[in-house]
């Protein structure tokens, strides 16, 4: 593709880029967070959010206000914005948006399968599914008993179909297999998304590829950390690592052999990007967890994406930043409703 | 004299009562701290996993208890409570003179051959790869359970102590006018 997105980009995507930059400017500021932290009840939080871009989004909620309701309404708002972008997009931006929704679709599929295991009704779970990952075949997911079943009967016509190559098996879907399915699907999805961005080239590849490499490596680290002390074998663990990151191949091989946090840290020390992140992790219950540190780095990378023009990364970055804002608000709301304010300032401001 | 004996009895009973009350307060503060810690760890898990991944969607509306409360009568007729894993079919024979509260938590026994399969860890409702905050929450709530059983036993002892104290004080009052 001829380099020089600045010549062609605005023809098809200029309006949407302008729109998303406007949306980004209305994210909550540090002052908004300071006001939220000082609230005493969830009603106060609702009042403060009315003065921001959220407006009266909680107006139709019946008493009492819960954190779960706030989260659901925020998600609906994000979904409305995203659907607007998606409906007005042209190729290849539309494919880019489809790739973005795949991760939410995977989460919804897993939520439905877990619900089937716990004998919950489909209607109950559909209400709680992520709106960005909605697709028509969702309701039939709970009938499948094995991954091959799931693919052949339900998902073969959906956007998730190409990610099933490594996941076909006849094992019944119990908790371990559902977890393996989730991670394998996500691995295939991430690698496919990475390839798409790389093939697109231009500024999009320059912005999106490092972000997706970081996402792949972050997943490898978190999977390793959470697998200590579980029944997941080291070989199984290695099959779950996405290979489109900086850690591939030596780092992933070392990570697969790690047995505790210290060994993981030694693997990270080989990489200039990850060494300072691991050094920022506090020990015990006092300081930051590894997830916090990774979220901070993600926010940094997403904010920097807005410094370049004429690329699709701004849409991805805006969605991720909005999600971080939702996580922040939910965290503050939970601290307020539990009246446990010691850690209320652990949110990540978006500057 | 009968009155002096009674008074020493009243004193020792009062001291025991106050000690029990202090222990109860300490246990209550510890239980509150554990429960608060547990809830905050759940919020942290929601932050890491997504707000809808740790909630009522993940557990069945009907579930088998993992831990049961057992009671027994001790030597002085007081009831003692303790919590035990439900997989243990029969508790060890508590000797009839045994008054001590025995901790069973962490005391794993191989399940009897005919017993049902070992109950699944509720942590796995949320997936196999769960963040450490969720495990931390489970530990906090488990410790809270043990504390709750201890507190129940203590409260029974305190109530009994108070009624004993009242009885003794009545007897004292009856004796005093006679000796006057």
From TrEMBL, chain A:
Organism: Ursus maritimus (Polar bear)
InterPro entries: ATPase_csu/dsu_sf, ATPase_V0-cplx_csu/dsu, ATPase_V0-cplx_dsu, V-type_ATPase_csu/dsu, V-type_ATPase_csu/dsu_dom_3
Keywords per UniProt: Hydrogen ion transport, Ion transport, Transport
Lineage start: Eukaryota, Metazoa, Chordata, Craniata, Vertebrata
UniProt cross-references to Pfam families, sorted A to Z: vATP-synt_AC39 (PF01992)
Keyword RNA-binding annotated: no
Quaternary structure annotation from Swiss-Prot or TrEMBL: V-ATPase is a heteromultimeric enzyme made up of two complexes: the ATP-hydrolytic V1 complex and the proton translocation V0 complex. The V1 complex consists of three catalytic AB heterodimers that form a heterohexamer, three peripheral stalks each consisting of EG heterodimers, one central rotor including subunits D and F, and the regulatory subunits C and H. The proton translocation complex V0 consists of the proton transport subunit a, a ring of proteolipid subunits c9c'', rotary subunit d, subunits e and f, and the accessory subunits ATP6AP1/Ac45 and ATP6AP2/PRR.
Designated gene of the protein: ATP6V0D2
Function as written in the Swiss-Prot or TrEMBL entry: Subunit of the V0 complex of vacuolar(H+)-ATPase (V-ATPase), a multisubunit enzyme composed of a peripheral complex (V1) that hydrolyzes ATP and a membrane integral complex (V0) that translocates protons. V-ATPase is responsible for acidifying and maintaining the pH of intracellular compartments and in some cell types, is targeted to the plasma membrane, where it is responsible for acidifying the extracellular environment. May play a role in coupling of proton transport and ATP hydrolysis. Regulator of osteoclast fusion and bone formation.
Cleavable signal peptide: none
A GO CC annotation given for this chain: apical plasma membrane
Family: Belongs to the V-ATPase V0D/AC39 subunit family.
Any one Gene Ontology molecular-function term assigned to this protein's record: proton-transporting ATPase activity, rotational mechanism
Name of protein: V-type proton ATPase subunit
From TrEMBL, chain B:
Keywords from the named record: Coiled coil, Cytoplasmic vesicle, Endoplasmic reticulum, Endosome, Lysosome
GO function terms (MF aspect): unfolded protein binding
Entry superkingdom: Eukaryota
Classification via Pfam families: Vma22_CCDC115
GO CC, one annotated term: endoplasmic reticulum-Golgi intermediate compartment
Disordered as annotated region, ranges: 93-118
GO process annotations (BP): vacuolar proton-transporting V-type ATPase complex assembly
Ranges in a coiled coil: 7-34
Gene3D superfamilies: 1.10.287.3240
Presence of keyword Transferase: no
Location of the protein in the cell: Cytoplasmic vesicle, COPI-coated vesicle; Endoplasmic reticulum-Golgi intermediate compartment; Endosome; Lysosome
Subunit-level organization: Accessory component of the multisubunit proton-transporting vacuolar (V)-ATPase protein pump.
Function: Accessory component of the proton-transporting vacuolar (V)-ATPase protein pump involved in intracellular iron homeostasis. In aerobic conditions, required for intracellular iron homeostasis, thus triggering the activity of Fe(2+) prolyl hydroxylase (PHD) enzymes, and leading to HIF1A hydroxylation and subsequent proteasomal degradation. Necessary for endolysosomal acidification and lysosomal degradation. May be involved in Golgi homeostasis.
Full protein name: Vacuolar ATPase assembly protein VMA22
